[in-house]
Amino acid sequence: MPQIIDGKAISGAIKDELKEKVEEMKAEGIRICLAVVQVGNDPASSVYVGNKKKACAYIGIDSLSYELPEETTQEELLDLIGELNAKKEVNGILVQLPLPDHIDEDTVIRAIDPKKDVDGFHPQNVGALCIGQPGFVSCTPSGIIQLLKRSGIEIAGKECVVIGRSNIVGKPMALLLLRENATVTVAHSKTKNLREVAKRADILVVAVGKPKMITREYVKEGAVVIDVGIHRNEDKKMCGDVDYDDVAPVCSAITPVPGGVGPMTIAMLMNNCVASASMK
Ligand code: NAD
Questions:
Q1: Is 230 in the pocket of ligand 1 (CB under 6 A)?
Q2: What residues contact 144, with CB distance under 8 A and at least 6 apart?
Q3: Cβ–Cβ < 8 Å for 264, 144
Q4: Which of these, 40, 50, 67, 112, is most buried using a 10 Å CB contact count?
Q5: Going by CA atoms, what residue is nearest to atom 15 of ligand 1?
Q6: Which pLDDT score is estimated for 2?
């Protein structure tokens, strides 16, 4: 049986560590405040926003909530971001994505002060990651690094294959693995012979957005498999991009869905919020 990488337990431990740190900071008179902005009322986004606010409350981070109507203009949203950038007491700004079609996400991301960009999406933070300088790192991939390290899985020198090249998961994941001294391959929808490429991996990270696409034909015996995908099928059961039942018997460690990568994203967001207080 493979090692089941327990994202729920690991994210819980990180949140408890942060809670303790925030208590110490409060004792020194330092408060942390995250502004959460949501435009429209997409039900999935509302759940994510609610979970982020809950995590803030648990850890002791103040949160300010801005729930704007769907018809909010880009100008209005940019004005709000400008105000939050200027507010000294706000350490972190999170604009929940996706935004309605009439608002350009890139423009909004660029408008956030990089020192308050706790999602790590601003080009300045992405660039800093690329050249190994300090900055905020996208939460899902940094959570995966924590999952590996805290599960005792060595990264240095390993063959890592990341399937998916999105700006929020695949690309920063590849850069983080490189920073940890892995040999990294990024595969994507135009990759030829994906099965052979994936089979090279000692650590295979899958972020393709296709339910159960990765079966054991893509996995080397004994590999570590990290499943970033989140899907809900017709009977409301959750699954990932990896066919868990098929892959688990051939790998040495695997993240389940739910309870693997998912809970780590919010834990790392909280980590970035705590870090933001020392980035003024
Ligand atoms: P995306 O759609 O932006 O990117 C998917 C990537 O997969 C693309 O780069 C594409 O080239 C590649 N791809 C698509 N089909 C492929 C194929 N047949 N073969 C090889 N590559 C292929 O998705 P994303 O935002 O990176 O998210 C990926 C998955 O992770 C989704 O299921 C998403 O819901 C999930 N996700 C989970 C978390 C979390 O907190 N656990 C966070 C972000 C995303």
A1: yes
A2: 173, 176, 205, 226, 228, 261, 264
A3: yes
A4: 112
A5: 189
A6: 97
Say if ligand 1 is within 6 A of residue 232 CB: no
Cα–Cα dist 206/76, whole Å: 37
Direct distance between the N- and C-terminal alpha carbons of the chain, in angstroms, rounded to an integer = 47
- pTM above threshold 0.70: yes
Fold annotation for 29-115: Rossmann fold (3.40.50)
Residues with a known catalytic role: 52, 96, 119
As beta bridge partners, residue 253 has 3, 224
For position 278, what pLDDT does the model report?
77
- Domain segments of the chain as ranges: 29-115, 139-262
In angstroms, rounded to a whole number, what is the distance separating the alpha carbons of residues 110 and 105?
A: 9
Q: Specify which residues 272 forms β-bridges with.
A: none
Query: How many angstroms separate the alpha carbon of residue 97 from the centre of ligand 1?
Result: 15
Q: Is the CB of 181 under 6 A from ligand 1?
A: no
Specify the amino acid at residue 216: R
